[in-house]
Design goal:
heterodimer; A: mainly alpha; two-stranded antiparallel ribbon; 4 helices; B: alpha+beta; Arc Repressor Mutant, subunit A
């Protein structure tokens, strides 16, 4: 799939920051290369130009700087948290709460680029 | 020629039988018109948040307990990032480092050999939507259609250790797992509808080698027959490739049932770079002891324990016990039959269920749950054979009658209504036998001259005269007395 400008908004930054920060220990030098930024942008199917890539690189390396400071704290023997809040997931009972979704489908498909016979249409994808 | 060892591990995607999706309140029912079960969460509109379905977690706990695995007191949801149009968020919510179930095992049987397959883990995740490439209207030329009804359906992905050594073992494992998830009621097992899908990781290595060979993953095997064919083909291909001096490259392959071959899907270098990280939208899943114990108390007796009990209580052979525990419905039906017929008739019940009833169900293409004869009716019939009221032949007639008559009548009613009781009364039979001997002096003479055939003919005559109702054993006894 070709990178599409402006597509995947939420995913782009989540992917970029989320995965990078989580995998910090993978980056021994605690700084990124331009190549790595391009690779992640490609995986997120986001087209970024050189200027944007450099700006993103600077921002990310800036974040690494902050983290480097935090790395100084001794965390020996402390169990890592999976979430910033020390809470447990609340659960929903197994009930169907949105039964008739015809109106919702019409509303969602009104803002979709293309839809036909109830299906969202996308450029042909076939393996 | 070199000896090769086959190594197989299996990942199975089991669709959980919940009413609602794993992170939204949309229905999971199969077969709705496109995108009518796809709400704002399922289509991934910005700003929506997932809320975990308790029913899906309960299914995972049930499974963990059933395979003797460890149900994690704390597990974590992660994002698996990849791009595909039927995955609208751009990531699948799954579990990575801390899955909900760790370990466990499943016994399998191949021919006479038993083996235990170790499980690595089982984790909860959401299913993706479906892409349709054909059958779209003219306006959709060159397009794929996306149906997100399946997006967000809860899945339990069950992963084995590379413990299987042949396609037969892989199929035996898949069958055992399929039976188990249905037995504990977490999956409907409908393979046509995609409720149970297997991926097989296959590699080969020279016999005696301890390192694993490079594996290829056969995706989306949705029938046991295809699994057997696909693995057989893949193994032959891998061995031939290596023996021809080639080497195996790690790849994802698809099985084409038409050609019977597997072919590589993609070998993009970044295909497996999923950049997992904990999903910030979901807090850790905490399962306390109390909940686990509640689920445990609710769990049906498991197949292995049930088999043991059928062998001890009913004196069944290992084979019979295995056949009768193929599904929970079948095992329950059998036990209800025994309850009606009496424990002393357990073996007869097993035979009727496995032979006569099975043949009938097979002919009518029905499941045991749709049996035309209830277990109480069948048990009542078997009791009447055991106490000599009717012969086995007559019982087959009554059986057919019960099957076609709905669940109203009992065996006793049909026997009485049609006068099918066996005639065992000596007085009545003696008179009949006397009459027959007088009428057939030829046969009597033949028998006396040593022709055993003539004896059988005489028994046949009595049976015929009574329209099959005479107790054949009593008739034989009487004839021997008279002729002896």
């Amino acid at each position: 799939m070709a990178p599409v400008r402006g597509c995947g908004g939420k995913n782009f930054y989540d992917t970029l920051y989320g995965s990078l920060v989580y995998h910090l220990s993978d980056f021994v030098t605690m700084s990124l290369t331009l190549e790595q930024v391009h690779r992640i942008a490609h995986l997120a199917r986001i087209e970024i130009d050189e200027i944007e890539a450099r700006r993103t690189l600077d921002q990310l390396n800036g974040i690494f700087g902050l983290i480097e400071t935090m790395q100084a704290v001794d965390t020996q023997g402390i169990e890592p948290m999976a979430h910033a809040q020390e809470l447990a997931q609340r659960l929903r009972p197994d009930c169907v709460t949105e039964d008739d979704q015809r109106a919702w489908r019409a509303a969602f498909q009104a803002i979709a680029p293309e839809a036909e016979a109830g299906l969202y249409l996308v450029p042909k994808v076939i393996e | 020629m070199k000896q090769w060892e086959v190594v197989i591990g299996i990942e199975t995607h089991v669709q959980l039988s919940t009413r609602a999706k794993i992170f939204s309140g949309s229905s999971t029912a199969f077969g709705a018109a496109p995108n009518l079960q796809a709400n704002a969460v399922d289509v991934a509109l910005p700003g929506v948040l997932p809320v975990l379905n308790k029913g899906a977690v309960a299914c995972a706990i049930r499974f963990g307990l059933a395979v003797g695995g460890e149900v994690a007191p704390r597990s974590v949801f992660a994002r698996k990032n990849y791009f595909y149009p039927d995955l609208p968020k751009g990531y699948q919510i799954s579990q990575y480092e801390l899955p909900v179930v760790r370990g466990g095992s499943l016994p399998i049987q191949v021919g006479e050999n038993e083996k235990t397959i170790s499980l690595t883990r089982a984790h909860l995740e959401e299913d993706a939507g479906k892409s349709l490439h054909e059958g779209l209207g003219a306006a959709a030329q060159g397009r794929s259609g996306i149906d997100l009804n399946r997006a967000g359906t809860p899945l339990l992905e069950i992963v084995t250790e590379p413990d299987m050594r042949s396609a037969a073992e892989a199929v035996a494992y898949a069958r055992a797992l399929h039976a188990l998830v249905r037995w504990i009621g977490i999956c409907d097992g409908n393979m046509q509808e995609g409720s149970f899908r297997c991926d097989a990781n296959v590699s080969v290595r020279p016999a005696g080698e301890s390192r694993l060979g490079t594996r290829r993953e056969i995706k989306n095997l949705n029938s046991f027959r295809f699994m057997q064919q696909a693995i057989d083909y893949e193994v032959r291909w891998q061995i031939a490739t290596i023996e021809d001096g080639g080497c195996i490259e790690q790849a994802t392959v698809l099985f084409d049932p038409a050609s019977g071959e597997t072919r590589a899907m993609r070998s993009k270098e970044d295909a497996h770079d999923y950049r997992y990280f904990p999903d910030p939208d979901l807090l850790p899943l905490v399962i306390d002891r109390q909940w686990i114990e509640q689920v445990r108390a609710d769990l049906p007796e498991l197949p292995a324990a049930r088999r043991e009990r059928l062998m001890t209580d009913g004196g069944l052979s290992a084979y019979d016990a295995r056949v009768l525990t193929a599904s929970l419905d079948l095992a329950n039906y059998y036990e209800a039959t025994v309850a009606a017929a009496g424990t002393e008739n357990a073996k007869a019940c097993a035979n009727w269920v496995m032979v006569d009833l099975a043949a009938r169900l097979n002919r009518e293409d029905r499941e045991i749950g749709e049996s035309p004869i209830s277990a109480t009716q069948l048990g009542g019939l078997i009791a009447r054979i055991a106490d000599g009221t009717i012969s086995t032949n007559m019982a087959r007639k009554v059986f057919d009658e019960l099957c076609s008559g709905g669940h109203g009548a009992s065996a006793d009613e049909i026997i009485a209504r049609q006068g099918l009781q066996q005639i065992s009364d000596s007085g009545a039979l003696t008179a009949l036998v006397d009459e027959l001997l007088a009428a057939n002096p030829g046969m009597v003479a033949e028998f006396r001259s040593g022709k055993e055939k003539a004896f059988n003919a005489l028994v046949g005559q009595v049976m015929k005269a009574t329209r099959g109702q005479a107790n054949p054993q009593r008739v034989s006894e009487l004839l021997r007395q008279k002729l002896g």
